[in-house]
Amino acid sequence: MNWRAVLEDTYREALAAVAPARLLALHLDGPRPDLVVAFGKAALPMLRAALEAHPGVPGLAVPPRDSADLTAPPGSAVYPASHPVPDEDSVRAAEAVLARVSALPAGSRLLVLVSGGGSALLSAPWGVTLAQKQALTRELLAAGAEITDINTVRKHLSRVKGGRLAAATRAEVRALLISDVIGDDPSVIASGPTVPDPTTFADALAVLDQFGIAAPEARAHLEAGARGEFPETPKPGKLPHAHTGVVGSGRVLLEAARRVLERRGIAAQILSATQDGDVRDLAAWHVAEVRRRRPGLTAPLVLLSGGEATVTLRGGGVGGRNQEFALWLLRGLGGEGLHALSAGSDGIDGNSAAAGAFLTPDSLARARRLGLDPDAFLARNDSGTFFAHLGDALMTGPTGHNLGDLRLLALLPTV
After folding, report:
1. pTM
2. Strand ordering across the sheet containing 109-114
3. Structural domains in the chain, sorted by start
4. Among 312, 323, 320, which Cα is nearest to 390's?
5. pLDDT digits (tens, 9 = 90+) for 147-157
């Protein structure tokens, strides 16, 4: 059996099964909206699905600039912007959205479609300049901050996040979300633009303290907010006109992958859909699971896991959390080896052009023949270059999804 092809086909077929339009179509039978606003990595597929259900309704979409198709649906406007660090286009997009939603009269209906990546794509800096917010985002990412920490800070430096988008309109708001975060908390997905925010200015300051980030301009704004000089984000119970629901998540993707494998007659088991933390620790946990389950195995078994690990940047290499996970997994297994794939559902892994990377039982031997030292590549966060040399990078381009990561580890019976 060609296990590399099996794992890649499983990844692609699972993504197709949970395409954003399919996830959304089950939830579009409500009242006809007066305006549809979509932002995030799945913005355009979600907007198109909504407008198929409600033809003639005007729409706005804010997708990543590198999306495969940026064609605007009839009667709609598209504002491509930057991810994961916001840019001037992100600000222009946020201003356009705020202008449209704030002009809606009382009694009208606003449909908001949100997917992962929305925090950067829709950016309305408050208390800091765009350049300062860009620098702060980069510092948080480089320090290994998790998305919940980053969003806590973003909400208190923004005019759209933390429920402020819903607070800006008199319309009845219905928001449908595709989750890319652990736990599928609507207040975390894209920094919760339509839901009350339980975090505070003080919480945002605590994040900066935790990661040792100075950011003097941001601190000055957050400290003033903590003293009560600026209004807090809307708290629970303060947005009665806004209703938010999650229509897709990483668990949905893992279930789809399991069904694909089982249709092929391959046993599959989901370990967890909510794994986060340091990528090195995550790889070590998977190594332990492989070693625990291999003895006595009589038929192939594929282990699946999801979530999003964090990477602490120590070097200036090319890669991302999925390729770095695969490289730590290779290092931990040593000569034992296995067939595996770790890839982001969005098709983009960190600062590389790859979605993720494959492992094969002979990956380490092939690397040694090429003179590639895994430790040296890990030390400079250069996993993407490592797997490019091996020819084991998965290349998909942006997929229009964002349901976290998909890890597939194929265990085979020992002969």
Report:
1. 0.85
2. 76-78, 59-62, 35-39, 109-114, 172-178, 242-248
3. 19-248 (3.40.50.10180), 251-411 (3.40.1480.10)
4. 323
5. 789 889 989 99
